[in-house]
Amino acid sequence: MTMKNVLLTVLILLLTLASCSKKQQELEIEYRGCKKMKISQPNYAFLPDTFCKKEGYGGAIRFEFQIDRGKDCFYAISLDEVTFYHAQGIEYNVRSNRSYKIDDPLVIIDNEKVSFVFCYWSNDSSTIANLTNIVVSWNIVSEYGQWSNTLTERIDFPGKPISTALMDIVKTIKVNDYYQIFKIWDHAAEDGDIVTVHFNNDKILDHYRLTKNGEQFAIILQKGDNFLSVLAENEGGSPPNTCSIEINNTEIKIDAKVNQAKTIKIVY
Question: What's domain 38-156's architecture?
């Protein structure tokens, strides 16, 4: 082999090593980026019952969310926990999809926006008819096996009552005026906590997003016992759901998991 050929071989070898090193660096950057995958609070909508075409009886819900970081790493969606309830807070045995890969026809990817259709079904029509809400914990996984943050959501079926069995009275307040103003806010980090508030069985705030500054609302008390109930619809970006309510100069901190309802008893 001539000196020229030797030099050419060495040059090719050096270029190959440099290319491999650059590729390795790119993979390392991508891997580190995948460790920061984060998903946002989803929007959801109920679809026609026949959408999923499962045997028996059931329904479908479309979830839509943003991948805030690491969108190029997205490989699959995993539903770690799915629990179905009826009005007494009793769990129902209902079958459902639990995982989706990116090539699943039920998954649609549009840049950083992802949607998927969650199907559930049962052989018993009364089981489906009596469902009041679902609690779902889910996240996404990268092709490297890295997991995003986990979100937990309560999904209420339209027109169905709150699960009263999950309530508990955390504070009793006595007041002398039938007209009261209460303030509600997130007493920890503002991270997307959502609550639904009932007053004497009437829904007065539906899927209300808590803020750090908060808002004020008026209520009219009836003579005797009154009940202001706060239901955690999710746990925001950092569990648990951290809600505060101030009424009659008294602050009540309500830290709750999804599907928990905490109640303030107001005696007038």
Answer: Sandwich (2.60)
